[in-house]
Amino acid sequence: MVESRRDRLRAATMREISETARRILVDQGPEAVTLRAIARDMGMTAPALYRYFDSHGELLRHLVGDIFTELTEELHRDIKTVPDGDLSGKFLAASRCFRRWSLGHRREYALLFGAPLPGFGHKEQADFAEECARRFGRTFLALFLELWHKRRFPVPPDEEIDPGLREQLRRYRDEALAVDLPLGVIQQFLQCWVRLQGGVSLEVFGHLDFALDDPEPIFELTMIEIGQGLGLEYSPPR
């Protein structure tokens, strides 16, 4: 199907709105990202923006989707620099890329991983932002699955997992991931993500400044510990 000129102009205007919203976010913070401020920057009226986005919340979710897409593309670029068979190198490349991007885009990171946007995560409001967020998450999940299928790492049997946690893991595996894996693998995946994203968040939001001027060595220690649990080989950053 050939895209019409009107469709192209509409898509270009939506991109400009998203770019303007991001520039305001970076320069002034999330509270400044209002329809009025965006319209003023673009030389439009605030009501005119409603021809492209139904609400302020929809605009923010579109911006979230764009930023998730950028981050995911950077992850894939870094992963592709590692030879196919080097799973340890792929994990390290993805993790270091995530940290580097996050530190270089602190306000964007806060929008993605700070307080959830209204309606974000509800099935009835699944949209562009949700799909972009899932694609980001599948990047790490794909590495995890590749490792599990090629090199099984130790995981607890299902019956040894805390019953309350076991049911949550089963629901997450069956409904969100739709994969056929032992619950111990899902638990290990979440534990690794909590350590990676939790450590990066502490650094991005300045919660390690009380003790550290340069938290990178702590991050690398975390990479060593995660790798040991997965049977991965550690190599220091170049």
UniProtKB/TrEMBL annotation:
Keyword annotations of the record: DNA-binding, Transcription, Transcription regulation
Domain of life: Bacteria
Presence of keyword Transcription regulation: yes
InterPro entries: Homeodomain-like_sf (IPR009057), HTH-type_TetR-like_transc_reg (IPR050109), HTH_TetR (IPR001647), MT1864/Rv1816-like_C (IPR025996), Tet_transcr_reg_TetR-rel_C_sf (IPR036271)
Residues within the DNA-binding region(s): 34-53
Limits of the HTH tetR-type domain: 11-71
PANTHER family: HTH-TYPE TRANSCRIPTIONAL REGULATOR BETI (PTHR30055:SF234), HTH-TYPE TRANSCRIPTIONAL REGULATOR RUTR (PTHR30055)
Name of protein: TetR/AcrR family transcriptional regulator
